[in-house]
Design brief:
single chain, 406 residues, alpha+beta, seven-stranded mixed sheet, five-stranded antiparallel sheet, repeat, transmembrane, GNK2_sf, membrane
Length: 406
């Protein structure tokens, strides 16, 4: 069956397709806690709604694009932290955080503890029923690794890239910790063996001291060397500090720091680093059971959410197509009836003319002509009663009698 093409049909289908775009266009990484669930229409949910209204505005109005807040009383108290990237603006920050609250409640439905990180959107959010604001511990950590690798198979080039990567991260971490906003963007202006230029961004929450920021970022160097060696890009995300590097400039404006000297050496990797979630996993044999379980649970939730959101939209889409097909068929049927009626009119006219030709004494007139000839069936023109009806006198060229058939 050929589906009809109609402008109205496009007006119905296009909005439905646009609703599906966010499902695949924006990548986010939710991290759902294990401190219990809240019930729908509960006091905790009401407090979370109030928090989602106030905190984005509070962060956007801050010079550091950072804010914390506490809402409610035990056992329904909620602690929250919101941070936008240092190269963002107030409008983008507020919009991102509003979306983060929505995504957190969708991907971590009814979880009392959740954190939301984004691929390109300039913010992160965490809320919890536990007072994580009272400590500087960097929780809910995620390692995001690029799926593309550099061509560094030769051992000398591989060693050079590791040295470049360590130099980039180490220098950027020091600069971020010593800045007033705890934020720095950088570029490694050192050309080594035709390897690409590296760009980096590091940020801590502005409420940390310089030493606390340094301590937060220090393990990121180890995580990067362990999970991202030879990769084109990657990032380490946490509620207190974050890092990202790429082989292309991904931040706004020019780099705040240009690095022109390489470090003397790369320190050995610490084999006792705590387990964290890696997305995607490096290799099945090297991924920890804990990290695999966390990643698998989040992936299943994301898939279920996409299916649940797409199913009703697909149903509406199909119903719209069927409705348009039905309308077009109905219109086509009406047009056919009209065409048949029009085709029958010449036959009827021909029959009338044949009747008139059979007898010269039988003449047919339109009703308007009869009304004019009889002066609207005036009694003054009535002559009598004929076989078919009353007989009137009339004047059309010559004096004649006209019999009106009833």
């Amino acid at each position: 069956m050929d589906l009809p093409c109609h402008p109205w049909m496009a007006m119905v289908i296009l909005p439905l397709l646009l609703l599906l775009v966010p499902l695949t266009a924006a990548q986010l990484w939710p991290s759902c806690g294990e401190s219990g669930d809240y019930k729908s229409n509960s006091t905790y949910e009401a407090n979370l709604k109030l928090l989602s209204t106030n905190l984005p505005k509070k962060a956007a109005s801050s010079t550091n694009l950072f804010a914390t807040d506490t809402v409610g009383n035990v056992p329904n108290v909620i602690f929250a932290l919101a941070l936008c990237r240092g190269d963002s603006n107030a409008s983008a920050c507020e919009g991102c955080l509003v979306t983060a609250f929505q995504d957190g409640q969708v991907h971590c439905a009814n979880y009392k503890d959740a954190a939301v990180y984004y691929d390109s959107d300039p913010c992160m959010l965490r809320f919890s029923n536990k007072n994580f604001l009272a400590t500087t511990v960097n929780e809910r950590m995620l390692v995001i690794v690029s799926i593309e690798s550099l061509m560094v198979n030769i051992s000398t080039r591989a060693d050079s890239f590791r040295l470049m990567l360590f130099t980039l991260l180490n220098s950027t971490a020091q600069s971020a910790a010593n800045s007033s906003r705890r934020f720095t963007t950088s570029r490694l202006d050192v050309s080594v063996s035709s390897l690409p230029t590296l760009y980096c961004l590091m940020q801590c929450t502005p409420d940390l001291t310089a030493d606390e920021c340094t301590a937060c970022l220090q393990p990121y160097l180890q995580y990067t060397l362990k999970y991202m060696d030879g990769k084109k890009g990657g990032r380490v995300l946490g509620t207190r500090c974050s890092m990202r590097y790429e082989i292309f400039p991904f931040f706004q404006e020019d780099p705040m720091l240009r690095i022109i000297n390489l470090a003397p050496e790369v320190p050995p990797i610490n084999s006792t680093m705590p387990l964290i979630t890696v997305n995607p996993p490096p290799q099945p044999q090297s991924q920890s059971p804990v990290a695999a379980a966390l990643h698998g649970r989040n992936s299943r939730r994301r898939a279920l959410w996409i299916i649940a959101a797409a199913a009703p939209l697909l149903s509406i889409f199909l119903c719209a197509i069927l409705f348009v097909v039905w309308i077009r068929r109905r219109r086509k049927g009406t047009e056919i009836l009209h065409d048949q009626a029009a085709a029958n009119r010449p036959e009827e006219d021909e029959l009338v003319w044949r009747l008139e030709e059979k007898s010269s004494e039988f003449t047919l007139f339109d009703l308007s002509e009869i009304l004019h000839a009889t002066h609207d069936f005036s009694k003054e023109n009535l002559l009598g009663q004929g076989g078919f009806g009353p007989v009137y006198k009339q004047w059309i060229g010559t004096l004649k009698e006209i019999e009106v058939m009833q």
